[in-house]
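One thing: can you check what follows?
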Amino acid sequence: MKEKLEALQNAIKAGKRKDAAAVTAELIASNAGPADILNALVVGMDDVGRRFKANEIFVPEVLVAARSMKASMDLLEPVLIAAGIAPEHTVVIGTVEGDMHDIGKNLVAMMLKGANFNVVDLGVNVSAATFVQAAKDNNASLICLSSLLTTTMNYMRTVIEEFAKEGMASKIIVGGAPVTEEFAKEIGATGYSSDAASAVTLAKKVLAA
């Protein structure tokens, strides 16, 4: 069993989607503990995130690893639900209004899923009101805002102000090419991340605070 779990970790690290799905199916069929399988996925994606932050791998490699993780999660999720194992936190993520870019946002969403967050992806061009409503509907613990344009990044301020108007003391982290830590502080964001791997680390830190 240990060997199979290690094989699953390695399949995720290498971005081998078919292998990841096959090993996951074998583990499920052999009645391996769903928590153990999930932990193998998390360990694999944690390693991917570490190597990405160290510039040992790049976005394409992270994407194929994340897709491999998704192939496994598609098989594992029904088993987790049946076992009563659910993600501890829900994250709402989206690219802000006026911005149609989604590669960075998608990468963050996949990395968060790989770290066992329940992720509600609102897509692109998302209004402040939609973020607020999604946070209410899903009892979200964290909101992630993305922007790739200097012309749209100031809308992040609008989203944060909308949450304040609703009296919601939400934890909101921001990121995207033009966004800086200084800008995040200026608009009252809870935190800022420069890349997808760091976003997962930040999310865990913010929610543990």
Notes: The chain has a mean pLDDT of 93. The longest strand covers residues 90-95.
